[in-house]
Amino acid sequence: MGFFDIPPAAIDFIIDGGGSAITTGEKGHVRMPFAGTILNVALAADKSGNIVVDIWKSTLAGFPPVVGGSICNGSKPTLSSEQVMYDEALSGWTTSFLEGDFLAFNVDSAATVTRVTVALTVTRS
What tens digit of pLDDT does each residue of 72-116 get? Predict the structure, then answer.
């Protein structure tokens, strides 16, 4: 890495059921502070369990993000009787984003897990 190379950044979003199993539905938004590309995604839960998280993207003008704006295209971050997962292939994903884009985190299904972190590693354009 050269002097002017910018290292990857982390965009983390925590979904917390407040001590109870996480429920389905949209859990919140993150505004992207710069343009870039998603390199990988990881899920880390408080306990072994099941959860499927979809990530939706929109521009400020198109806010709020909706299911039609899914960036995962059928390859959603998923825990299946496990506590952690990591995916750098991102098969089918729309990985690019612009400064000011919003990402929404939607739980499609969940069982047992009461807290999960969705961790995206991104680079700046």
Answer: 999 999 999 999 999 999 999 999 999 999 999 999 999 999 999
Q: What is the pLDDT of residues 9-18, one digit of tens each?
A: 999 999 999 9
The identity of residue 18, as a single letter, is: G
Sketch the domain layout of the chain as residue ranges. Answer: 22-124
Q: How many CB atoms lie within 10 A of CB 86?
A: 12
Architecture of the 22-124 domain: Sandwich (2.60)
Helices (H) and strands (E) in the chain, counts: 0, 7
Please answer whether residues 91 and 75 qualify as being in contact, where contact means their C-beta atoms are separated by less than 8 angstroms: yes
Tokens encoding 59 = 């521009």
